[in-house]
Amino acid sequence: MAKMLPSLLLLLLALLPAAARADDGYRLWLRYDPIESPQRALYSRAASELVVEGDSTTIAAARSELVRGLSGLLGRPQPVAQRVDRDGAILLARRAVPTGEEGYVIRSTRVNGHAATLIAANGDRGLLYGAFAYLRLLQTRRPVAHLAIADAPKLGLRLLDHWDNPDRSVERGYAGQSLWDWQKLPGWVEPRYTDYARANASIGINGAVLNNVNAQADILTAPWLAKVKALADTFRPWGIRVYLSARFTAPMELGGLKTADPLDPQVRAWWKAKADEIYRLVPDFGGFLVKANSEGQPGPQDYHRSHADGANMLAEALAPHGGTVFWRAFVYAAAADKDRAKQAYEEFTPLDGKFAPNVVLQVKNGPIDFQPREPFHPLFGAMPKTPLAIEVQVTKEYLGFATHLAYLGTMWEEVLKSDTYRPRAGTPVAKTVTAMAGVANVGSDRNWTGSQFDQANWYAFGRLAWGPLGSADAIAEEWTRMTWGNDPRLVQRIGAMMASSRQAVVDYMTPLGLHHLMGTGHHYGPAPWVGNLERPDWNPTYYHRADANGIGFDRTATGSNAVAQYAPEVAARFASLDTVPDDYLLWFHHVPWDYRLHGVATVWETLLSHYDRGVARVALYEQDWAALQGRVEPERHAEVTAFLRIQHREARWWRDASIAYFQSVSKRPLPPGTAPPAHDLAWYEAQTFTHVPGH
Amino acid sequence: MAKMLPSLLLLLLALLPAAARADDGYRLWLRYDPIESPQRALYSRAASELVVEGDSTTIAAARSELVRGLSGLLGRPQPVAQRVDRDGAILLARRAVPTGEEGYVIRSTRVNGHAATLIAANGDRGLLYGAFAYLRLLQTRRPVAHLAIADAPKLGLRLLDHWDNPDRSVERGYAGQSLWDWQKLPGWVEPRYTDYARANASIGINGAVLNNVNAQADILTAPWLAKVKALADTFRPWGIRVYLSARFTAPMELGGLKTADPLDPQVRAWWKAKADEIYRLVPDFGGFLVKANSEGQPGPQDYHRSHADGANMLAEALAPHGGTVFWRAFVYAAAADKDRAKQAYEEFTPLDGKFAPNVVLQVKNGPIDFQPREPFHPLFGAMPKTPLAIEVQVTKEYLGFATHLAYLGTMWEEVLKSDTYRPRAGTPVAKTVTAMAGVANVGSDRNWTGSQFDQANWYAFGRLAWGPLGSADAIAEEWTRMTWGNDPRLVQRIGAMMASSRQAVVDYMTPLGLHHLMGTGHHYGPAPWVGNLERPDWNPTYYHRADANGIGFDRTATGSNAVAQYAPEVAARFASLDTVPDDYLLWFHHVPWDYRLHGVATVWETLLSHYDRGVARVALYEQDWAALQGRVEPERHAEVTAFLRIQHREARWWRDASIAYFQSVSKRPLPPGTAPPAHDLAWYEAQTFTHVPGH
Question: Which residues in B lie closer than 8 A to residue A20 (C-beta atoms)?
Answer without folding.
Answer: 16, 20-21, 27
